[in-house]
UniProtKB/TrEMBL annotation:
<dbReference type="GO" id="GO:0016020">
    <property type="term" value="C:membrane"/>
</dbReference>
<feature type="transmembrane region" description="Helical">
    <location>
        <begin position="113"/>
        <end position="133"/>
    </location>
</feature>
<keyword id="KW-0472">Membrane</keyword>
<keyword id="KW-1133">Transmembrane helix</keyword>
<keyword id="KW-0812">Transmembrane</keyword>
<feature type="transmembrane region" description="Helical">
    <location>
        <begin position="88"/>
        <end position="106"/>
    </location>
</feature>
<feature type="transmembrane region" description="Helical">
    <location>
        <begin position="200"/>
        <end position="220"/>
    </location>
</feature>
<feature type="transmembrane region" description="Helical">
    <location>
        <begin position="139"/>
        <end position="159"/>
    </location>
</feature>
<feature type="transmembrane region" description="Helical">
    <location>
        <begin position="272"/>
        <end position="292"/>
    </location>
</feature>
<feature type="transmembrane region" description="Helical">
    <location>
        <begin position="48"/>
        <end position="68"/>
    </location>
</feature>
<feature type="transmembrane region" description="Helical">
    <location>
        <begin position="240"/>
        <end position="260"/>
    </location>
</feature>
<feature type="transmembrane region" description="Helical">
    <location>
        <begin position="15"/>
        <end position="36"/>
    </location>
</feature>
<dbReference type="Pfam" id="PF03741">
    <property type="entry name" value="TerC"/>
</dbReference>
<dbReference type="InterPro" id="IPR022369">
    <property type="entry name" value="Integral_membrane_TerC_rswitch"/>
</dbReference>
<protein>
    <recommendedName>
        <fullName>TerC family protein</fullName>
    </recommendedName>
</protein>
<comment type="similarity">
    <text>Belongs to the TerC family.</text>
</comment>
<feature type="transmembrane region" description="Helical">
    <location>
        <begin position="298"/>
        <end position="318"/>
    </location>
</feature>
Amino acid sequence: MNLSFLFVEWLGTPLWMWSSFFALVIAILSFDLGILHKQNKEIGVGESVRLSALYIALGLAFGGWVWWYLGSEAGLAYLTGFVVEKTLALDNVFVIALIFSFFAVPRLYQHRVLFWGILGVIVLRAIMIGVGATLVAEFAWLLYIFAAFLIVTGIKMLFVKEAEPDVSKNVLVRFMRSRFNVTEEHHGERFFVRKADPRTGAMTWFITPLFMALVMVEVADVIFAVDSVPAIFAITTDPFLVYTSNIFAILGLRALYFALAAMIHRFRYLKPALAIVLIFIGSKIFVADLLGLEKFPAALSLSITFAIIAAGVVWSLLKTRDPRQPA
């Protein structure tokens, strides 16, 4: 059998590397759904932390392979992208918690929504990153647009207080309720259910609140990708590193959600740290130009990014500590 096609490059990377990555992701998701969570169950904080540690370890191990096979520069770019995307994804947890609360999604089925949401993310991020990589390759000046956008977004996050989103007033929620048959109650783990139309008595299909929650989770990811995709392109323009760091960071979000949702109040001061990270990442391109560098040093970029995020986490945990607890 002629396997030479596996060495053909697609978006600058041999097909065998892309296919190996997708095979690994499919294996991870199959193990998660087919073995660990074959039956619907509530995930406690302890299990959430253990699963998160496993996913982080897998993401870092893949980064170690990238470092070994593609070199230290690629390895540092992947790790920086992984850390940034992982941290930006934390901001998504708050919105997901609001969605689950609004649709009264039972904890028993929250993992199911997040699992199918991840499949959508894998496809949507592939499309967005593929389009972004094509545009950046054709119009290099777009990187400066991305960088400026990140700086403006970071400044806005620092100084503009955003109101808590009202899911009930969301345009998409109102559209689904006005255009489709929607059940008021949940029907177990089902996204669709066939039942009698109360107006005509005829049997017809209804969408359940669980499906509406899934749609809103997918839309939330697209909105957050508007920040995260430019951020990763400002770190590296290699589509393989951009996509793999994105997906490995998001894979663990599903597991981490259940732990973070229980203690989201402890990360109250993480958002300013995220804002500073976006400003730093956006400014790197301009700083490199001013200093006459081809690109900002990858090792320095990772160190500064990690230090900002770590400071935000530590400060949050200290400021939200229960004063009744001993120091």
